[in-house]
Structures are given as structure tokens and as C-alpha cells.
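A.,

Following up on our hallway conversation. C-alpha cells first:
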């Protein structure tokens, strides 16, 4: 089962006639939750093999990163940097994977890469994505599918508290909100994911490690005119306990202007609070917005180092900078 954190006053808008949408009382937030069932599980044995192989064979890791030099595919900043998020990640898209040279692809396929790519290809199809966009459309009163035509997807494999500089650090993944419309988080059964209560900031609700969770991001909030809240979350792992997750990120088409889809909302109708002038005037594209968020993310995963005097935890927060952009 997967859960979507939704506004507490939106449950009445759900259409019970839809076979893909039903109500759920999953205790992850005081907000109403909506559930879909993707009937698919991540290949965690393959994910474990691939992560271990890249850790044990740095030459293969370097060869993989050489094809995406600026941001890298394998993020190992946690290994030397105890202040970054204490996890190791592998970031890919199906388009990027297609560019991996044949000889390297063959080596990594023996370590689980093909199983992982097949999994993400399956979960990226419309049978999984369509029902979630449908649900978000109902909650927001907009047509979310209209700005999700080009399959702007990416995925991440996360290996927590393994080969990290500070394995006793509970801050496996600091508090943040995702960039896109939504993220589907597949877990290996190990707890650690927590979602902040939308109605009580600072209050955290643990999520069962067996749940597949759908987390809404900044793009969903803006496109919905504020009707769909962002889902702030973090990962707190136990020292010595390895935790794996696989995440599919779904974003609007890159050229889409990040502003409320409903013209009534753009003209000052119902919304949580006024958006910034930059948002309401259509100056922010999805592609540009992702680049802004990506720079802060690279600090957090250890790919880039903050300037001296700006290395405190607060300055590393993605959300504080993005809130200024979104709300003004």
C-alpha cells in the first residue's frame, strides 16, 4: 500500500467510484491520507549487490560517474564528510542509463543493474503514475496530467548508515521537501522514514518500513494553488542498522511554468497564502526551479562544500531558500 499525505479538508472531494482511489487511515500524519496499491516491490537484493560492488570497486564507480561528471551518479559524500546526510546514493534516469557504455553496463548488470532498471521502467508506466496524478487532480481541482506528458522521471537508490563517515549519526537524511510533483518511496522493511505533521510543525510521525509512500513536493503545492501541501520528511536510522530504499521522482514537464494551473487561483482565489510575484508572473520554469534546488542538494549529499562561514546546518536547508522563492 502507498500513502499520499493530503490536505485534511480534501477527503470530501474524493470520488469513491474510482477503482484506483480509496480512503485509508494509515497513521503517518494527522492529515487525511489517500491510498493506491501499485502491486510492485523494489528489487532490494539487486540494490544491495550494486551498492556493495560500487563501494568495493572504486574504478567502476569512477567510470560510472565519468558519464555525468558535474553531479555524479554515485554520491559518496557521506564517506569523508560527517556533516552531510549520512547515506550513499545512486541517482539515475532511464535516459542516463542508456548512455552507460556497453562494457560497463555488462559488468554492472551482473551486479543487479538490469533488475533495477527493469523495476523503475515498470513503475514508471502509466498504470502506476496515472492513478496518483488522477488523485492529485481531484484534490487540487486541476488537470495534473496536462503538465506531465513527457515522463520527466528520475530515480534514486539510497543506502543508509553504510560506509558513512559517522555511522552513529541518526541524521541519515535531514529534514527536507522534494522538488517535484510527487515521489514514490519503496522501503526494504526497515523503519526510519518520518513525516512531519502538517498541522503541528516539529511533530514527526514514523512510517512503517513496509509501506510504499507517496510524498508530495513543491511543484504539487504550486500547481495546485496551495491546495496540496508539501510533505516534509526525514530519515532517522539506528546505528549499525543498514536501510535501503528506492525512490521514483515524478516532476512536471521541464518547460512548464511553475504557477497555479487553475486561472481562478492565479487571479487571487482560494489558496493557502499568496505566492511570490516571480511565481505568479510565470517567470519560474520547472527546469530552472530544479537547478536551484539541486545546488542545495549537492551541498547536503556532500558533492559540493559550502563557503567558509556558511557550513552551519541551517544554511544547508533546501526548504528555507525555496520558501523565499515560492512565497516571497
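Then the amino acids I'd put at each of the 328 positions:
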Amino acid at each position: 500500500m502507498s500513502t499520499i499525505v493530503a490536505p485534511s479538508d480534501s477527503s470530501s472531494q474524493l470520488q469513491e467510484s474510482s477503482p484506483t482511489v480509496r480512503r485509508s487511515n494509515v497513521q503517518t500524519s494527522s492529515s487525511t491520507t489517500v491510498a493506491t496499491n501499485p502491486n510492485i516491490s523494489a528489487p532490494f537484493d539487486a540494490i544491495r549487490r550494486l551498492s556493495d560492488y560500487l563501494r568495493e570497486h572504486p574504478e567502476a564507480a569512477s567510470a560510472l560517474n565519468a558519464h555525468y561528471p558535474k553531479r555524479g551518479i554515485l554520491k559518496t559524500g557521506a564517506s569523508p564528510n560527517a556533516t552531510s546526510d549520512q547515506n550513499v546514493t545512486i541517482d539515475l534516469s532511464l535516459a542516463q542509463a542508456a548512455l552507460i557504455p556497453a562494457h560497463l553496463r555488462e559488468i554492472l548488470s551482473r551486479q543487479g543493474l538490469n533488475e533495477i532498471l527493469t523495476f523503475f521502467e515498470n513503475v514508471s508506466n502509466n498504470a502506476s503514475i496515472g492513478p496518483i496524478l488522477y488523485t492529485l487532480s481531484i484534490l487540487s481541482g486541476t488537470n495534473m496530467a496536462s503538465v506531465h506528458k513527457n515522463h520527466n522521471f528520475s530515480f534514486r537508490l539510497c543506502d543508509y548508515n553504510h560506509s558513512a563517515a559517522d555511522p552513529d549519526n541518526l541524521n541519515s537524511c535531514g529534514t527536507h521537501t522534494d522538488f517535484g510533483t510527487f515521489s514514490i518511496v519503496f522501503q526494504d522493511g526497515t523503519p526510519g522514514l518520518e513525516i512531519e505533521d502538517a498541522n503541528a510543525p516539529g511533530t514527526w510521525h514514523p512510517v512503517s518500513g513496509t509501506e510504499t509512500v507517496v510524498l508530495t513536493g513543491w511543484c504539487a503545492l504550486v500547481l495546485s494553488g496551495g491546495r496540496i501541501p508539501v510533505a516534509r520528511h526525514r530519515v532517522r536510522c539506528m546505528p549499525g542498522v543498514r536501510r535501503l530504499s528506492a525512490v521514483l521522482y515524478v516532476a512536471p514537464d521541464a518547460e512548464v511554468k511553475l504557477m497555479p494551473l487553475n486561472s481562478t487561483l492565479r487571479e487571487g482565489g482560494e489558496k493557502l497564502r499568496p505566492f511570490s510575484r516571480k511565481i505568479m508572473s510565470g517567470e519560474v520554469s520547472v527546469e530552472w526551479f530544479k537547478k536551484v534546488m539541486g545546488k542545495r542538494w549537492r551541498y547536503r549529499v556532500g558533492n559540493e562544500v559550502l563557503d567558509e562561514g556558511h557550513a552551519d546546518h541551517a544554511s544547508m536547508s533546501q526548504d528555507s531558500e525555496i520558501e523565499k522563492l515560492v512565497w516571497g
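The chain has one domain: 33-261+271-301+318-327. Curious whether your intuition agrees with the design.

B.
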